[in-house]
Specification:
The complex is a heterodimer of chains A (428) and B (271). Chain A is built from 17 helices and eleven strands. Chain A is globular. Chain B starts with a helix and ends in a 6-residue tail after the last helix. Chain B has 271 residues and is α+β, with helices and mostly antiparallel strands. The interface between A and B is medium-sized, with 20 and 21 residues.
Chain lengths: 428, 271
């Protein structure tokens, strides 16, 4: 009797197991149109990354002074929040001092998006005295031609002369005292098209020709710098190349501690639960458990583990994990899981190439994308919009004087996208 | 003694032996399949090391099958020396006569496994066929051509002829793009445009140098042949890159009016 029952139970169990196995490997209903069991309702949801802007909006009701502490933007020169880059700043100042005693020099400040290049330049500028002749050139848009480059520089340097080539422009730098020229976002000089390549050639020529008369401090996005170096051997024309990677553990702790210390609103931290599902974060829900952590240190450590020292990513997680008290008297932070980037593997070849070019250029319009890939602009817009819908790219609305929207990779996703493209040998 | 050998030979085909042998063969086949799947997944995940990962598969497969055969012969069947010699002698003659080509291919396949001329993923030219090596089996080697055809070449044929390997295990390979223009074109300008066309192709591997070479050529009239030598970042994009550079260069020449017939009717060499 017992043997019979056991046999029946085993049989039922194995049937259930077989059904489960069969269902697992059975194609989804929507992949079999025309079949009897095809259901129109079974539409696969498009996977996408979490909404960054939505996360930032969670702390809307809190005081501005508190929210600004955790905003993702470059710090002003004198900001008390500056931390973690003391060594880099000292290196930069040493390089500037070395130039004052040497006949020539040029400094390249190289780092990925979100590493804090602009903040470091702001801090450097704030340390200059009134007798230093300092000019700051921030390239806000793509510089496509040598004429554009010359016009931008003439305007920033208050030069009224008319010149048509950088060779004609070089002698203008010999007048007066030696000056310091800081160029931010120099990746906008390099567009990978045959027509635009001469612009970057002209810029490197100008730096090489004038570094006896002025100190160039040029900040480049990492990918753009590497390309410029491969194409033109740019490294040979810069006396100092200062690499600015993401924060390491100590630097990151210092940055976060400063921000947490400055916060006027009390914060309560909760430790992560290891087995929590990743969906919790992507849906912006609050499913983590509430075992209180001993202090903020473990929470900061958790943020570092998730972000890898990428400050925009860390600040995003900070927002995503925070739940303001309804009375707005305190903020509760529940350490959750990281973002699931597995959808990157599903990207097709054109999307991967588009991401690689975006990583190197910093940002692209559909027109620039179409020039790089020699395809119709409409196709380019479709491709970039598809990536935008996956929330990999953010898309700035076209301003009044611009005709086109500008696409860039969300700074939060730069590190994983970069790692993915390097594994695929599309970035090197 | 002869009776013993015959008796042992008959015992070889017992149900227990057959089932065990079949089980070992199926297990070896399953392990090889699983290994292939795992390596394919790894190669997809770590594309940069794709060729190294796929390259170890033929060696591992040969090892697994060798172990399986050894297990069957020495453990399951447990043949005595006499029987082993008898089986080898008789089957050797029969198989040698009936399957000369097959054995030649298998021996060539084993030789190629331990002394590889190419790996899975390499771009090779074997005879008239050019393509990516998609598989190296014991009997055949498969090439995937740019027309998406799979060409199976017997291993014995491969070791008899020269094999040209474009990348030899590396992911990047040199691509040469040729363009023939009238001899009167301004060579320096065309060289610069060719270099810019190669640099701006998204398929170009910029870490390696890009060269543009020029040589004279005569075909009814004096011509200049421009060769752009650049590296593609992944061998799979070889043709795409060649086409892309050609397209860019033609566009640039057209834009600068260097494609016009002036250079055909003008002097062969600039004055």
């Amino acid at each position: 009797m017992k043997v019979g029952e056991l046999w029946r139970e085993s049989l039922a169990g194995s049937r259930a197991w077989w059904r489960e196995l069969r269902d697992r490997f059975r194609p989804s209903p929507e992949s079999r149109p025309g079949r009897g069991d095809f259901t129109k309702a079974a539409v696969a949801a498009r996977p996408c990354l979490p909404d960054c802007q939505g996360a930032y909006a969670r702390l809307k009701g809190l005081p501005d002074a508190f929210r600004e502490l955790f905003e993702n933007r470059p710090l002003e020169g004198e900001s008390p929040l500056f931390a973690g880059r003391d060594n880099a700043l000292a290196d930069l100042r040493d390089a500037v001092s070395a130039w004052e005693a040497s006949p020539s020099g040029a400094i390249a400040l190289v780092g990925p998006d979100g590493a804090g290049r602009t903040t470091l330049l702001n801090r450097l500028v704030s340390g200059f005295t009134g007798r230093d002749r300092v000019t700051r050139v921030t390239l806000a848009h793509r510089v496509r031609t040598e004429t554009d480059l010359i016009q931008t520089l003439l305007l920033s340097l208050d030069m009224a002369e008319t010149v048509s080539t950088v060779e004609e422009m070089a002698p203008l730098f010999r007048r007066g005292e030696r000056r310091i020229i800081l160029v931010d976002n120099a990746q906008r000089l390099l567009l990978r098209t045959p027509d635009a390549l001469p612009t970057s050639e002209a810029f490197v020529s100008l730096v090489a020709a004038t570094q006896a008369d002025c100190l160039w401090v040029v900040s480049f996005k990492e990918g753009a710098w590497r390309r410029l170096d491969y194409i033109l051997g740019a490294r040979a024309h810069f006396s100092t190349v200062l690499e600015l990677p993401y924060f390491n553990r100590e630097e990151f702790s210092a940055v976060m501690e400063k921000r947490l210390a400055a916060a006027a609103v009390p914060m309560v931290f909760h430790a992560p639960r290891r087995h929590e599902k990743k969906e919790a974060l992507s849906h912006g829900t609050d499913k983590t458990d509430r075992h209180p952590a001993p202090d903020a240190t473990s929470f900061v450590e958790h943020l570092f583990t998730l972000s890898g020292g990428n400050m925009p990513a860390a600040l995003y997680y900070w927002h995503a994990f925070s739940v303001p008290d309804p009375s707005l008297k305190e903020v509760v932070l529940h350490a959750g899981e990281g973002i699931d980037f597995s959808l990157l593997k599903e990207l097709d070849s054109p999307s991967r190439f588009a991401l690689a070019e975006l990583m190197a250029h910093g940002c692209l319009t559909a027109g620039e994308h179409s020039e790089i890939f020699q395809q119709d602009e409409r196709m380019s817009r479709l491709q970039l919009d598809a990536l935008h819908r996956l929330r990999l790219l953010n898309k700035s609305a076209p301003k009044a004087d611009d005709r086109e929207a500008i696409y860039r990779i969300e700074p939060i996703f730069c590190a994983p996208v970069s790692a993915f493209l390097e594994a695929a040998h599309l970035m090197y | 003694m002869e009776t013993n050998v015959v008796h042992e030979l008959v015992e070889l085909f017992s149900a227990a032996h057959l089932v065990s042998t079949l089980f070992v063969i199926l297990a070896a086949w399953g392990i090889v399949r699983a290994l292939r799947l795992v390596l394919q997944r790894l190669a997809r995940k770590f594309n940069r090391y794709r060729l190294q990962i796929t390259g170890i598969f033929p060696v591992l497969r040969l090892l697994i099958w060798t172990c399986a055969v050894a297990l069957i012969v020495f453990v399951i069947l447990d043949l005595s020396q006499n029987v082993l010699l008898a089986v080898l002698a008789s089957s050797g003659i029969a198989v040698g006569l009936a399957a000369q080509d097959l054995i030649r291919n298998v021996l060539a396949g084993i030789g190629m496994t331990f002394n590889p001329l190419f790996r899975v993923g390499d771009m090779v030219q074997i005879g008239d066929h050019y393509g990516e090596v998609s598989g190296v089996d014991l009997i055949f080697t498969s090439l995937k051509t740019f027309d998406d055809n799979v060409v199976a070449i017997p291993n014995a044929e491969i070791i008899k002829q020269p094999v040209s390997n474009a990348n030899r295990g590396a992911l990047v390979e040199m691509v040469v793009v040729e363009l023939v223009l009238p001899a009167g074109v301004p060579v320096h300008r065309v060289k610069l445009l060719a270099w810019r066309a190669a640099v701006s192709s998204p398929f170009t591997y910029l870490k390696n140098p890009i060269l543009v070479l020029v040589e004279d050529h005569f075909d009814h009239t004096f011509l200049s042949r421009f060769k752009v030598k650049a590296y593609v970042l992944d061998i799979r994009f070889e043709r795409l890159m060649a086409s892309d550079i050609t397209e860019r260069l033609k566009t640039l020449l057209h834009k600068e009016r260097l494609h016009t017939s002036d250079y055909l009717t003008g002097p062969a060499f600039p004055q």
